[in-house]
Amino acid sequence: MNQQNNQPVRRSRRLATIIPASHWVSIGYSEDDAQRMELLQNDMKRYCDGDDAKIDLRRRSGAILPHHDMMLPLWQKLFKSLSTRATFEDFRIAAISMPESVLDIMLPSLQSTNNLTKMSIRNANLGNEGLLRLADFIKENSSLEQLVLGYETINDLSVAASFSDALKNHATLKNLMLNKCGLNNISILEEILEGCRGMEGLGIVKDGFGSEGVALIADFIRSNESIETLLLTNNGISDNDTLVLASALMQCSTNLIRLDLQNNNITEEGEKVLLKALYDPTSMDAIAESNHTCKPYTYDTSKSSIVAKRSQTEVLRINGKITSMTNQQKIRKKVVLALCGVDGELFDLSHFNDLPLQLMPRVLELIQEHSSSRKKRSTVRPTS
């Protein structure tokens, strides 16, 4: 089904109601797209008549729904309604073609609202011109806090530069998710990352940016002091790449709390490399110089059965206590963990060689507390 942008807009009483699927079939839409077009109108009418805080126009099946200029008055009515609504905070659209004619209605209306905090555009066939319009909207917006952009390929460096400029030092936008947006192009990725240095949460998903991209990400981790959550799922990251990421975790001065590496090509060997960045028990100095804030995951943390099988979950627990423990307290716990060894027994007593004698009672007390805690946890741990 080709887009019908060139057909004249029908001026009829039908625009005040729902244009039925049969009409869309009669002008060349497939049966499936005709049904989806009718459902879209029903959604639009419901949102016009309601007072919803979240507007969700995502079509969850099928290809991108083609646009027809006959829909322009309906788009205009919807966005006019939203522009005056104090409760409107969240706008989501997916698998619906949004040509420039619709964006020219949508973006100024959304710009006039003061409460829009979340926006998600996925698979809307924006193209370069649409992305430039979106970049202009972001740059001028003063309320947006979270943006999701999916399946919208950024393949032009000037577009990437405009988008990066819009993101840079944005007053309110702190969380950005980019899902399959063409960031396997290293020049594009570098440009976008430059604009994300003020972000607290960033996701780059399904872009397969390779080892060269991982090196850029590692530099981003080292130099970005605001980033707290970084999602890098489905990017083909390998065990060799974890060496680069682990080095960044050791050198960074950021507040990075969570590094999500699910669904990559990372094996147990890569996990060990990442863990060593958090906990290197080879010496007291190595423990002190480890990363004490980040929790890197290569597995689904929502499934307790998977989490239970992972080694050194205690290290992740220690790193995860962001607000309740200082770094000095975390270092002490990791020292005790090293002294207790894997099986709860002391090992390598040479660690005590340079320890001031007056501290020995406290160290032994901590070891005893830690061993008791491990014993209690082992008695309640599920056997499955």
Plain-language structure description:
The chain is elongated, with a radius of gyration of 26 Å. Helix 3 (72-83) packs parallel to helix 4 (100-111), helix 6 (157-167) packs parallel to helix 7 and helix 8 (210-223) runs parallel beside helix 9. It has a single domain (51-334), classed as Ribonuclease Inhibitor (Leucine-rich repeat, LRR (right-handed beta-alpha superhelix)). Helix 4 (100-111) links the parallel strand 2 (90-94) and strand 3. With 384 residues, it is of the alpha/beta class. Helices cover 46% and strands 10% of the residues. It has helices spanning 21-26, 31-49, 72-83, 100-111, 127-140, 157-167, 186-195, 210-223, 239-251, 268-278, 284-288, 304-309, 313-320, 327-340, 360-380, and strands at 54-58, 90-94, 118-122, 146-150, 175-179, 201-205, 229-231, 258-260, 295-297. The model is unreliable at 2-6 and 8-15 (pLDDT under 50). It contains 15 helices and 9 strands.
Separate helix tally: 15
Strand order of the largest sheet: 1-2-3-4-5-6-7-8-9
Q: Give the helix proportion (percent range).
A: 40-55%
The fold-level CATH name is Leucine-rich repeat, LRR (right-handed beta-alpha superhelix)
What is the count of structural domains?
Answer: 1
Mean pLDDT: 86
Low-confidence stretches: 2-6, 8-15
Q: Care to count the β-strands?
A: 9
